[in-house]
Request: fold
Amino acid sequence: MNSIETIIPIIVMIIIGYTLKRTGVLNAEDAISLNKIVINIAIPALIFLAIYKVNLAILPLITPIPLICVSVGITCGLIAYLVSTAFHYPSKTRWSIVSTSAMFNSGFLGYPVVLGVFGASGLVRAIFYDLGSMILFISFGIFFLLMLGGKYSEIFKRSFLFPPLWGIILGLLLNFLNINIGFLISQILVYLSGAAIPLIMISLGLSIEFKGIKEHIKAVSLVSTIKLIIAPIIAFIIVLILGMGGLEKPVTILEAGMPSAMLGLVLAITYELDVKAAAACIFSTTILSMITIPIMLLFLS
Reply:
């Protein structure tokens, strides 16, 4: 099975989620409950198992990956800021464009795609890329907090108490200490992690919304170009400069081409930015990524 055949089931599951919404079996609000299960249970279990089982000897090879993520994110954010400023967007819209251009959906969509194409070894690399995405989210949160005001407790809660982050920390700790979690706990985590991919895909399908895209077509076009074309090109250049090889190379480039992070909408809501523009950019890049991700896989295979 090639990489394109691998991603077809992922796209089909997203379509199933969207169809369930359109037929009234589920509604958009149900995505909130599914997301809570995914973020608090399924994804942490998936991350923990992957990190717990990995050979720690590869750490020197994968530690640059979060830094590449941050570098690509900052560069994309800077491009978005310069272009949106040149087009005289209002401040709130401009910062929504910048944050959605800089932050990657490297976990929610990236994990299933990388796991399906590159297996468990690829997932470990994706987790480290997503660590860079977490750093970007924390940085934007602090930046908006200082610039626009807000509650420090909200950023602390969403960042340092983020369950997937603790999946990484506990996985590394127990792996390093060589602590055996036993068959029972291991099997429970296997079952819980197995729910991650289908729930993520169905949730994404439920979240897809075409309203508002036409209203913000210029912002959508800008963010889509930056996220789905420019970002993976920047990552490709950085990977070449660093001489990165193995699975690190294709996973890093693929993750850089993921759509805008759902957390961009959280920032827009929390700091009263242009929520409609942020939502339009996030959903549009998610939809368009169903075309660009298979194209990237063709080049990376």
Summary: The mean pLDDT is 90. Residues 3-17+46-300 form a domain with the Na+/H+ antiporter like fold fold (CATH 1.20.1530.20).
